[in-house]
Structures are given as structure tokens and as C-alpha cells.
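haha ok so turns out i had the wrong file open the whole time. this is the CORRECT one, sorry everyone. sequence first:
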Amino acid sequence: MKIKRLLFVFILVLLFGITNAAADEWIAPTPFQVQSDDGSRVFYFNPDSDDSNERAVLYDNSNPPKVIYTVKGIRSWAYKSDFYFSDNFQNFVFFPPTGFDVAFEFYKNGVLHETYYIEDLVKESGLIPKSTTKAWWLSSDEKISQMQNILTFKTVDGITYNFNIASGTFADMDGRTMTFLGKSRLILIFAFIAICIAGIISFMLIRYKRKSGSSERKIPGQSEQQEML
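then structure:
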């Protein structure tokens, strides 16, 4: 009987340990502000705001301060370290601290302009470790770095990306724009091509039917003329 109890306790301890190992512990976000290098602009974030459209705001550092833009619909669970700004603070990149799909979001003048997904950036998805709240797709060897408007980060499968926050495009370290086509964009492109092809085929079929119909109508007329002759 004692052996069974000990075995039962051992199994519970083992399961509890496994659950804790896979679980994440997050400190609740608190309000913060980020100031531009020249001190002229301040980005303020309040996770406790009930209105998602008033949760984050950029204002100039004047007296009294003037609102430049408010961020539309940003999530409340965010930390200061998740934000990276362009030199003039008009644009920023936000890396969600939790989640399994979104890699990062690009905001332009407070409006979400583009969402980039983990599946678009990581080519070997099997290398991504996952916990109960997050897919850890960024490399643990190298931290995200920023040099002026160029944001550099590395994925778990060893791919390094440079993102230009000012233009909202992927770029090399010299700032030259590089073409990036994620799966979502490829799907849109293929859908557009398919619609165009379907339209062309439909147009050709309609023309063919019209020509066939006109030819059939001409044949009886030609026969009547021959009989009259």
C-alpha cells in the first residue's frame, strides 16, 4: 500500500514539474514612456487603458504637449523592450511578447501598416521551441539590435534580417531595399493571377460563343440565296 502511495506521489510531482517547466511567468505590464534622442517627442503607453485606441500616444515635448498621433487597436500586454522606433518616431515596430503566429507588427503614424508572421521569417519551423504562451522564434544567441533606422534580428534557424523602420521595408545594412514576399502576400498574388486568368478564359469563351452563334445564323441565309439563284 505504501509503495502505491509513494508511486502516486511521485507521478504527481513529475507531472507538476513538467507543467511548470512548460509554463511561462510574465510580470504584468506597467505604463512607460520612450523619448526620442533629441528629446522632442515622447511615446507614452498605458496598458491599463480600457480603450485600445487611447492606449498608446505620441506627443511632442512642448508645454503644453501636443498629440501627434494615437495608436489604433494595439494590444495591452506589451513592454517597453518590445518597441523599436524610427528616428522621428513616426513609425515603429512592435514585437508581441506572447503568441504563436505574429512575428512583429509595423505601425505607420499610429496605424498598423503591415503584419509579419513567424512562418514567413522562419524557414525551419521545427526548430522553434514553444511554451504555453509563446513561440520562441528569435535566436537566443543574438539580441535585437538597432542602428539608426535599421533593425537587425536573427531567427532560431540562423537567418538574419534587416528591417528599415523608416520605410517599412526589409533592407541590407546600407539601407537598400530588399524584396520580401511572405506567404500571405504570395497567396494574394496567386489569387490575383488566378482571377485574371479566369477572367481571360471567360472573355474568350464569351467571344467564341458569340462568333459561333453569328456563324450559325448566317448559314440559313446563305442557303436561301443559293436557292434563289
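The CA atoms of residues 1 and 16 lie 23 Å apart.
again sry for the mixup
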